[in-house]
User: What shape does this take?
Amino acid sequence: MSLLIVGSVALDTVITPFGKNNEALGGSATYFALAASYFNQPRIVAVVGEDFPEEHVQVLRTRQVDLKGLEIGDGKTFRWSGKYGYDLNERDTLATHLNVFEHFHPKLPELYRTSQFVFLGNIHPNLQLEVLDQISKPLFIACDTMNMWIENEREALGELIKRVDAIVLNDSEARELAREPNLARAARKIHDMGCRKVIIKKGEHGCLFFTPHSHFSAPAYPLESINDPTGAGDSFAGGFMGYLSRVGKVDDLAIRRAIIYGSVLASFSVELFGVDRLLSLSEEEISSRYQDFQEITRFDV
Ligand code: AMP
Assistant: This one.
């Protein structure tokens, strides 16, 4: 079934203790789409500037990403820069230059309006709502968000949460959104805000999935070599939504499997700088790591 992602396509400058990436292909929609491309042909809605290198467009095309919704705006591409220390769960944002993103209003091509699976990447909640207003009856909508919107755009975010089936956010965001330090209680409060499926990512400690009636806990893959955590969350979301849209199901079991596929794609993504690892994966590597996850969570047969 069709899969739509709305988010950023960016030029990222990233410093980690293991190296540096300068103005590399990045952005939430990019990581998402490349991860999802192992399951489906995701449709991107985003904007880049006139300076966006053609070679990056080709990279997305090579992975069969549908770019009919990629607008070229007047001005420069969105740029983001971040720095990590040895605790790769923590990062400092060094710069965010919105550029063409500042006046962006997503416009969905006609064909995209009937997309069945929709992921609203981390952009202003009003823009996420604008996407929902252009779309008719999707089977499953999930969204991401970040602390900036939780702090400054609570009302719009509240509206959005009522209209999505699932929210994917990290532990500090969940605590802040629910104004509740305990994650199980935070998830319950988010259910009460109107969203029935809450997925809480805990960086290198895996992730939790709460519905009003069930709870699932996934470990993180014990990677020995991480070079660049940028995009892990978006790669998770891409693997998660990519799998769901391929099987066309959203029951509890499908979501649990999708969470593991999301974790698999996130674990690959951080092995190399930028999107490099997401370009060189094979089906065999993905299914082998999925089996590793089954093995490390097997407890009592
Ligand atoms: P993650 O590491 O999953 O949080 O995602 C990092 C990606 O998000 C980078 O590639 C950035 O280009 C992108 N990004 C960072 N800040 C923003 C923002 N304010 N709006 C949209 N995308 C952003």
